[in-house]
Amino acid sequence: MIKNIVLLGIAFLGCSSQEAPKPFLPTEPTTPIAPKVYTFTKDPIWSDEFDTPGLPNDKFWSYDVGGSGWGNNELQYYTKADLDNAHIENGLLTIEARKESMGAMNYSSARIVTKGKQDFLYGKVEVRAKIPAGRGNWPAIWMLASQSDYGSTYWPDNGEIDILEHVGYDPAVMHFSVHTKAFNHVIGTQKTATTRIDDFDTAFHVYTLEWTPQSIKSYIDDKLYFTFENSGRGWEEWPFDKKQHILLNLAIGGNWGGQKGVDDTIFPNKFLIDYVRVYGLNP
């Protein structure tokens, strides 16, 4: 009996010796994958330097027209191709709000857009501008989707990028924001940042957006003030993988701009833009 056990043990040992365990090797530490570093073209892929006097170039710009309140209970009527509200002179585009009856509204102004003429997917946008002062005004440099591919409503499902907003009752406070289905001001979840620029109305500054598949960043005079990262959790948070277009406008009153009323002594109120330049995203 003992002999048989020994023989069985020898046989077992013989079998196991043919399948010797592999030596343990410590796991090598993994190196994190660094985010891609995006760069932009040296020269603009499109620009408007506003060098030709008269109306904005109709090859680049169209007009949003009317006095519907524009979703914010705004008080201005946006005109079409009216030199009183949008004109180029001395190398500057002037968007001018005026105190006058227009349609059913008591103010006129302009909102010019590149939709369908200059639409972009990613890149760097630079706008050199002087922002008007005055309680009740609401100038903006911003972008909206050029199509409606996401969700059931155009806004906010398809996204908005605010390169710069300013409300006159809170002078010198510059706002940068994005709006999406998950993050927007209607439900109090908008992603935003602010900074102070005390000479906003007496000096020109360069307002810049850098838009890549990874993030949206906003700058004033090359200083970073706002970053919004792509979470990778779907279009509800990041619809910014579709083309957008540029808007320039000077609104009056509204849910935000008119919170402390409108000072009628500020008119005519002028938003001055020196240039708009768009740089492409390098491969």
Describe this structure in words.
The structure is a single chain. By secondary structure, the chain is mostly beta strands. It has one domain: Jelly Rolls (Sandwich). 7% of the residues lie in helices and 39% in strands. The chain has two helices and 18 strands. Strands 1, 3, 4, 5, 6, 9, 14, 15, 16 and 18 form a ten-stranded mixed beta sheet that branches. Strands 2, 7, 8, 10, 11, 12, 13 and 17 form an eight-stranded antiparallel beta sheet that branches. The protein is globular and about 55 Å long.
Count of individual beta strands: 18
Cα shape: globular
Please state roughly what percent of the residues sit in beta strands, choosing from under 5%, 5-15%, 15-25%, 25-35%, 35-45% or over 45%.
35-45%
The sequence of SSEs as H and E is: HEEEEEEEEEEEEEEEEEHE
Q: Profile the largest sheet.
A: 10 strands, mixed
* Mean of all residue-level pLDDT scores: 92
CATH topology: Jelly Rolls
- Helical segment count: 2
Q: Helix proportion of residues, in percent?
A: under 10%
Termini gap = 78 Å
Return residue spans where pLDDT drops below 50 for at least 5 consecutive residues: 1-17
In the residues, how many domains can be counted?
1
CATH class membership: Mainly Beta
* Rg result: 28 Å
The CATH architecture designation is: Sandwich
Secondary structure class reads mainly beta
